[in-house]
Amino acid sequence: MQTVNYPLATTTWDDGEYAAMQRVIDGGRFTMGHYVAEFEAAFAQFHDRQFAVMVNSGSSANLLMVAALFYIKTNALQAGDEVIVPAVSWSTTYAPLSQYGLKVRLVDIDLDTMNFDLEQLAAAISPKTKLIFAVNLLGNPNDFAAIQKLIADKNIMLIEDNCESLGADIDGVKTGCFGAMASFSTFFSHHISTMEGGVILTDDEELYHILLCLRAHGWTRQLPEKNLLTGTKSGDPFEESFRFVLPGYNVRPLELSGAIGLEQLKKLPDIINGRQKNACFFKDTMDNHPLLSIQKEIGNSSWFGFSLVIRPDCGFTRNELRLFLDKNGVEYRPIVAGNFAKQAMIKHMDVEPVGTLPNASYVQTKGLFIGNHHYDITGALAFLKQL
Fold it and tell me: What are the chain's domains?
């Protein structure tokens, strides 16, 4: 077995998280309760957004965001509507779109930023486009000023998959604050970890109420007495206990995750700062490297990981890069799902690639990424100077 000296992800927990779990154990309530509610309030406050809904994963967060847009009173999505998504992301960015009958149009990425190629995005927008699902890849924000300009005079909703980019910002505005909704992941390998977990942020109260309902069975139990989904609840807890108004799910988080999340949020500024300091060393080491290119930052990335992409016609191969990383005990992964148009899953979906997606295909075959961490890894990254 290959020895791993430089893992893809490491824990951000210490005694604080274990003490938080013990408080939940001592209290005896493990299902969603006040710790989850406190975490939601703190997470929303960190982003200066009105509402947060915690769920059991970032994938579930994406699912609820897409579902919620089918139940808003004005300009609700309908099956067959077109949504534009970058061709490089995670499988559960795309799956909910298909599950709700949307036409998925894949747009190529920019080879430098690995987010939307803005020229391709502009060309892909049609009168049938109802939604743009931006993905902030590997910690890097999209150029949201440019995207907003493209849709300013159009009836197109913007949402964000921010699962890999917690804490990134553009001019002081954090990613997750540019779309009508945004999803986050708090899985182990992400910036903060609640074991499994995810969050949705929004400033729209109607969407917030719909999300609360969809998260737990489609029932009204968690809705306020006066709400923008049902109007006014009966006021009788018995009548409202099993009242179902939407075809919902059960994607609630555990109290353990909420309690852990509160401890993790206390550390988040230092976690982001540590990752960004490591990125400064990484950029200084790898900028203008003759064999490999790295991701170009938009705003301030939170540096989920460090991408390495083989430069064209340099005579170096990805297999050689992998052998080098293996020799140095470095764990690595493909750049997310690569060109999603090449994944077998799309045979079950209504997916239309916009053009040939050459950049997405290039990073799929010529790229990979290594991990970043919240602590100083500049000494560990020194092996890159041998390339």
Answer: 15-262 (3.40.640.10), 268-386 (3.90.1150.10)
